[in-house]
Design brief:
2 domains; mainly alpha; two-stranded antiparallel ribbon; about 65% helix; about 375 residues
Length: about 375
């Protein structure tokens, strides 16, 4: 009987070392590591949210549900660690405490520094000290973990929110260029793309290091970090395709940083990524969709150096670098359905936005905007 309890104590020690390594690698080593037990908790929570989400057809209601997914995953992972430590210390106490329940009470009391149960012999005293120290350190690290997550989240969402005034809600690449031209901000686009080049690098680093951040949604249902980055990449690719002589080099740098961000994040989440696609590979976005965006630029007087037919192969050659990864992330995370952003789980149609119009003292009754209309089936 004693040998059996000693064997269980050995199992508890191995479990203690294993969970400690997992905690250190997850919280302290910035390599995006997810332990086996954390993966189980992660997948279980995402499965539950996806299962419930299947019954909610309206996107806005589904978005309100999925807003709790990131917090649910985070709590599940942290709870898994606490339970793992509690079980480990319980097993370590079994050689000196015959009752499993009493061992559990003492392990919990020591780990949470409650101290309502203690055994005076040497081995339980050592285990109690270890449990108290580990519990204090782990809980402290977990508390410090949250500000790091929300700091990265706030950096991400600040630029996403600012993009709404430039590219609409949901963001759309052609609208970003159209509004920049209408507002006289074309000369500001190089600095804009420099900001988004750094933004994409920051999101790549933080979301690979802390994968749960990918599940934290934007505050507004009408936007998303995935769709925002997709719109910026599309605007850069479109700019270079329709007006190559005026397109700033910063747009290409932002585009490369953007598609690397998409590739790394989707790969980190389990997607197979083609690291070197051919410019001739097919894309899901159709030429008719591209024509619709091209005509948006034409109607606002954007300087166009190529026709839609001439620009299309160049745009497609850029988009092949990020479309599959971006669409995969958009579908898995079930982000806002938007133009040029792929399909969704529920088959949602793209959410429309308003093309802004100027109201001035000289023309106070001018329309503020016109509702977004679906892409016509026949643009010929």
């Amino acid at each position: 009987m004693l040998l059996g309890r000693i064997a269980l104590a050995v199992v508890g020690f191995v479990a203690l070392v294993s969970v400690s390594i997992n905690v250190v690698r997850t919280l302290l080593v910035p390599r995006g590591y997810i332990s086996g037990e954390s993966k189980i908790a992660y997948r279980l929570v995402t499965f539950v949210f996806r299962l419930i989400g299947r019954w909610i057809k309206e996107y806005q209601r589904r978005d309100r549900l999925l807003a709790y997914e990131g917090a649910g995953i985070l709590l599940a992972i942290l709870g898994t660690w606490v339970v793992s430590y509690l079980v480990s210390f319980t097993l370590l106490l079994l050689p000196s405490i015959s009752s499993p329940f009493e061992a559990f009470r003492e392990a919990g009391g020591s780990m949470l520094t409650l101290g309502f149960v203690s055994t005076t012999s040497v081995w339980p005293t050592l285990v109690d000290f270890l449990a108290g120290g580990v519990g204090l350190v782990v809980i402290t690290i977990q508390i410090a973990y949250l500000p790091t997550l929300y700091s990265a989240y706030n950096r991400r969402e600040t630029e996403v929110t600012l993009l709404s005034s430039r590219a609409g809600e949901p963001p759309w690449g052609p609208e970003l260029l159209a509004r920049s031209h209408l507002s006289g901000l074309i000369d500001d686009l190089p600095s804009f793309y420099r900001v988004w080049e750094r933004w994409a690098a920051d999101v790549q680093e933080s979301h690979v290091s802390y994968p749960v951040l990918t599940r934290f949604r934007s505050p507004q249902h009408s936007t998303s970090w995935v769709v925002a980055l997709l719109a910026v990449c599309d605007s850069a690719a479109l700019y270079d395709s329709v007006s190559p002589n005026h397109c700033p080099i910063e747009s290409r740098l932002a585009l490369r940083s953007g598609f690397l961000c998409f590739r790394h994040l989707s790969k980190n989440m389990g997607n197979e990524v083609d690291e070197d696609p051919s410019p001739m590979d097919p894309v899901e976005l159709g030429f008719q969709d591209f024509q619709y965006g091209y005509r948006r630029l034409a109607e606002v007087g954007f300087p166009l150096e190529r026709t839609a037919e001439e620009a299309w192969p160049h745009f497609k050659g850029w988009r092949v670098n990020y479309e599959k990864s971006a669409y995969w992330l958009a579908e898995v995370l079930d982000v806002v359905p938007a133009e040029w952003a792929g399909g969704r789980r529920g088959g949602d149609a793209p959410i429309g936005f308003v093309f802004l119009k100027d109201r001035t003292p000289e023309d106070p009754n001018a329309e503020q905007g016109v509702p977004f209309t679906p892409i016509p089936k026949d643009l010929e």
